[in-house]
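for ur thesis appendix - Solute carrier family 23 member 2. copy paste whatever u need, i formatted it the way the template wanted (i think)
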Amino acid sequence: MDENVIDVEATLKPQSARESSTEEGSGTNHVIISTSENSSFDNEDKKLLYGLEDVPPWYMCILLGFQHYLTMFGSTVAVPLILAGPLGIENDNLAKGQIISTIFFASGICTLLQTTLGNRLPIVQGAAFSFLTPAIAIMTSIPNPPISVGNSTNGTTSPNVQSDFWKVRMLQVQGAIMVASCTQVLLGATGLIGFMMAHIGPLTIAPTVAMVGLSLYGPAGDFAGRHWGISVLTMFLIILFSQHLRNVEIPIPLCCKKGERGALKIKLFSLFPVIFAVLLAWSFCAILTAAGAFPSDRNVYGYLARTDIRLGVLNQSPWFRVPYPGQWGVPVVTLSGVLGMISGVLASIIESVGDYYACARLCYIPSPPSHAMNRGIFTEGIGTLIAGSLGSGNGTTSYSENIGAIGITKVGSRRVIQTGACIMLILAVIGKFGALFTTIPDPVVGGLFCVMFGMITAVGISSLQFVDLNSSRNLLIMGFSTFMGITVPNWISANKNLISTGAIDNQTQNIIYSIINYFVVWDNNDFKFLLSMLRLQGSVEGDQILFVLLQTGMFISGVLGFILDNTIPGQSLYYIS
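the 3d part is after this line
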């Protein structure tokens, strides 16, 4: 080692961690595979700078906590930017900034709850992509209002007819999230997680999680297609930093005792690939905008790559704004919305359970016991309820990228995560900070989406690593459930008018009436009244339920995968000793 470079593990690791060793972890309790990796815990533990119970100095807590904030930045900002289209606020940057602040505020609260009262692992809670598909389905099931109302006095139109209509859609999503979160609370409180996971295998998880990413190809393509050159640049930078340069260590000057000088080597590109890529692409767009390379006509291709078209939102947004429950109005609960959103909740639970095991292993502690697992899911349910009541348009779940940051930084301190949660809360109430994110050019966001959603899809597919893919049974289940999760929503979107639950057309009604009337004399009006009582003359609520469920690809894939995996004879997993 270079004599001018300080041994980070020796200098930053607290004395308590150097003198004591963490209890050996037991790994996951799954019977899929048994490994001998746990035998290396004693050696690996020496590489942990700050353990779960360690409390770093306050300045280190702030620095490392802000690092976790930056790590969750990309995924968290992506959610409101995707929801802006279905909500109808593509051009309302002030509303987008408020929703971004609300999501960060909810994430800060939920992270504090999880690390303090929940499973108490160093896990960051943030916006869940699994809620996006049902949320979009709910929003698109609500028809648009009239565009404008003419004013007969001066020939102008009223500008407020549609300005607040996005809140109508948001309130229905809020109600669905709040009620669906009760499912998560119930599963955590009753300890049914173990029973549920015993019947949900990789052939259910893989297509469900994969569909979370695949179903979002539309928004990703729309944003990226506004200037493919900038989008490709953003993708290139993310891949360059996260893969090719991930092991490059950047020396940071460090002052030592007795006037000595040294350097702290940090893998910055591995820690912040998204931040660096977005900032560089954003800056490049600013340079091209100043040079006049992008068109100034909004109808010309490339206009949305400009960086000066949304600067007005920084003046419109207040300096301080605290999100509060019911800020958009009173939430509206519909059966269709709740049923669709439950699929998002179940997908979030599956993802979180895996994150708990991964986080415990990276912190070199035993796998979380069943009561800690149940407490974590219960707390996530409460967090989703809070996020829904605040009007974030989304729920909360554990963030895998922040767990990965623990493995990179070797800092698993719970206090660091709690400090990061406080930073989320502070920055969330600064209105102009949230508004700043809305000024990111659309092609930059599109490049981010393409990489991020591709990774989500790959994470789902990676669940098949212990599945016997030489079995035609397993290939059928995986292929059929995934294909139908793409096909059915696409057909439903193009044939909305064909959905009619419980409806009997007039010709069929007349045939049935003629047959009945042959045996029993019955007045036609009484017959129609009976049909209406039985809801056989059409149901708007039933149509909406069917539309939302069939529009949710991960619901279709998950249900098909679950049914087929539990009914078709055979074994899905192979075993490794």
